[in-house]
Protein 1
Amino acid sequence: MPKAKATTNPPSPRETILLTARDLTCGDRNTTYNDPRINMMAFAELQEWAAKWQKHCLDSTASDIAHHAAMVMVYAKLARIVVGEVKADNYIDAAAYLAMAWECHEREAEAL
């Protein structure tokens, strides 16, 4: 792998984001949420369940997009809970995404 060039200029916003992402995903997040493959497999399993849930329980209209997007975020938080450290942050985030999903559903129902 090529080595990064040393720079004397302040990092660009892109470089700052990439360095922060590297530090978090290879450090704190990796320690907290386990190996990325394990976490992504848990997420994929939840997504598979979600697809079945959507197919059998919901009317998949275009107006459901925001609701479903919020639910995908809930699945991401559930995957972190399943394979990572127990952190209140994930439960709080999941609850927030569920509340957002409900709000999206309500607004979508009003729009019909």
Note: The two ends are 54 Å apart (CA to CA).
Protein 2
Amino acid sequence: MTWILTTPQTKVQKLKEATKGGKIFSATFEKKDGTIRTINCRRAVKKGVKGKGMSFDPASKGLMVVYDMHKQSFKMINLNTLIEAKVNGKTIKFI
């Protein structure tokens, strides 16, 4: 099943809904330098969190904090440059 989403707010809502509960998913997005990256990650990871918090709100800048399963570190996905996400065998395409 493939969903194609065009509205920015729908992107965020659909991705957060599909990945809640710490589900592992892959996301393909364009990095700052223009290269395309696919990351296997999950949200809501507590490992390595020191409790200090961040100095800014990632959501206000269109970013989603995820845990990279391969590099075992926290990364940020720019939701404005998100191309597609795969969760539970479903593909969500962002146009």
Note: The mean pLDDT is 81.
